[in-house]
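User: Teach me something about this protein's shape.
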Amino acid sequence: MGYEVKVSITFREAKKLNIKLDSSHSSILIGRKGKNLDAIQLLANIYAGRLGHEDVRVILDTENYRIRREETLVRLAYTTADKVRSSKNSILLEPMNPFERRLIHTTLNDIPDVETKSEGDGVYKQVRVIYKGIR
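Assistant: First, the predicted structure itself:
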């Protein structure tokens, strides 16, 4: 991309490698809703596979974006569940990648009067949060 980045390994496990990117251009590296960071991470995983490390999952992060995004999505899930309960109408969330959708589903999984389902085609599907009442 043409930006100076300092790369460091934050942790290494058997099949997982977490890499931290430090740059004065972090906001560009992250992109809108993390799309640039996801794309760079995908390229890193493809490259690792071509080097013979198909079993290793590379996770890229900058400015703790991944943790911040996860916290934002958990808050969004609970807020949406509250809105669905009070209005008794379903709400369709923004398109999300598989990891983000799974996070919404698992966050709301234990709430008895709300259910979730993914809708749409492709990688970026949407999650619908539905009021089902208490049975």
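Now, about its shape. Residues 91 and 129 are 5 Å apart (CA to CA). DSSP finds four helices and six strands in the chain. If you'd like, I can walk through any region in more detail.
User: That's plenty for now, thanks!
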